[in-house]
Amino acid sequence: MSRDEPEVNEALELAHPDVVEGRYRRLKRASDLAFKQKNLQDYAPDMVLEPFKLEFTEDVNKILARDVEFDLLNNSKKG
User: Fold this and answer.
1) Percent of the chain as helix, strand, coil, to the nearest 5
2) pLDDT in tens, 14-44
């Protein structure tokens, strides 16, 4: 999920600071490993990986549903 998407950005603004900090650290670590052309398994072979953590996916889905509802309500007022 890209922070460039407005609903993801809003979900991150509403998320707990620990969730945001964890996401930032994972992105920073991934960037560092990509630069070094290394794999995380080289450093922590027994680590259970969760490459797509879904910590705020539910919030993003709620925001998207809210936006659809707003659009439907606004369209019903126009016509």
Assistant:
1) 70, 0, 30
2) 989 998 898 899 889 989 999 999 888 888 8
Tokens 């998207």 correspond to what residue? Answer: 64
**Could you tell me how far CA 17 lies from the centroid of its own chain?**
13
Could you tell me the two tokens for 12?
Answer: 């991150």
The Cα-based distances of 48 to 40, 43, 45 in angstroms read 11, 12, 9
Helix (H) or strand (E) holding 69: helix 57-78
Instruction: Quote the CA–CA distance of 76 and 30 in Å, as a whole number.
Output: 46
Q: Which pair of tokens denotes residue 38?
A: 């290394």
Higher pLDDT: 53 or 46? It is: 46
How many other β-carbons are positioned within 10 Å of the β-carbon of residue 4? Answer: 7
